Amino acid sequence: MGHDGKKEVRREMRLVLANLDKRWEAAAHREVCGELIALFSSQLPVSIEHILGWVPSLPGEVDLAVFMAEMLRRGRKVYLPRILSPGLMEFIQIGDEWGAQLIRGHRGILEPREGSGAVLTAQDPETLAVLVPGLAFDARGGRLGRGGGFYDRFLARSELSGAAKIGVCWSMQVVHDTPTDHYDVAMNWLCHERGSLKIVQAGG
């Protein structure tokens, strides 16, 4: 599927996400966070120490606040993205009062204030888990982003090749096939309000 196919899927999924029932969404946020907590408690390696999350800024994005608070309570290090320039971002470590450290950045998206926490540096990939947003995912680990290329570029870094990459979404965003390109990085897990799925790569 080419550029037109991606454009059409993005258009359709944005429409779906913009029209979610708010009462359903409020409950589903907590359900996704509960599934993530269960995933980190029983399925992922205990070696994971650094968790990269996000702050919802667009219609239909999952709110990870409950999950991040629980990970901080357990002593894990949690980070949020900060946009540096088009297509380029870094991750800033947050603490318990992280909400007070957010400012409006690129396109009005909330992000940690510069200097509010340590910048994520190269780590043993076995200690890293990246929670990845997207418009659509499939059971093979394919992901369709929103078109900015931020996560495509970030996940392509060689030092992240062994990190756990977890696509987080609503179950309705899991489709039969996502239109992807050769440079797209596959997810290792999918997690939504109905559960989680470990991705088994072809030939793996």
Task: Please give the structural blueprint.
Layout: H1 3-18, H2 22-42, E1 50-52, H3 65-73, E2 77-85, E3 88-94, E4 102-104, E5 110-112, E6 128-132, E7 136-138, E8 143-144, H4 150-155, E9 164-168, E10 174-175, E11 189-192, E12 195-198
Parallel strand pairs: 1-2, 1-6, 6-9, 7-10, 9-11
Antiparallel strand pairs: 2-3, 4-5, 7-8, 11-12
Helix pairs in contact: 2-3
List keywords for this structure.
3-stranded mixed sheet, 204 residues, single chain, Rossmann fold
Radius of gyration: 16 Å
Distance linking N and C termini: 25 Å
Helix count equals 4
CATH fold title: Rossmann fold
CATH classification class: Alpha Beta
CATH architecture: 3-Layer(aba) Sandwich
Number of domains: 1
Q: Which sheet architecture does the biggest sheet show? A: 7 strands, mixed
The share of residues in extended strands comes to: 15-25%
**Category from helices, strands and their pairing:** alpha/beta
Average of the residue pLDDT scores: 92
CATH superfamily: NagB/RpiA/CoA transferase-like
List the uncertain runs: none
Number of strands: 12
Widest beta sheet: strand line-up: 3-2-1-6-9-11-12
The coarse silhouette is globular
Instruction: Give helix and strand order, one letter per element, not per position.
Output: HHEHEEEEEEEHEEEE
- How much helix is in the residues? 25-40%
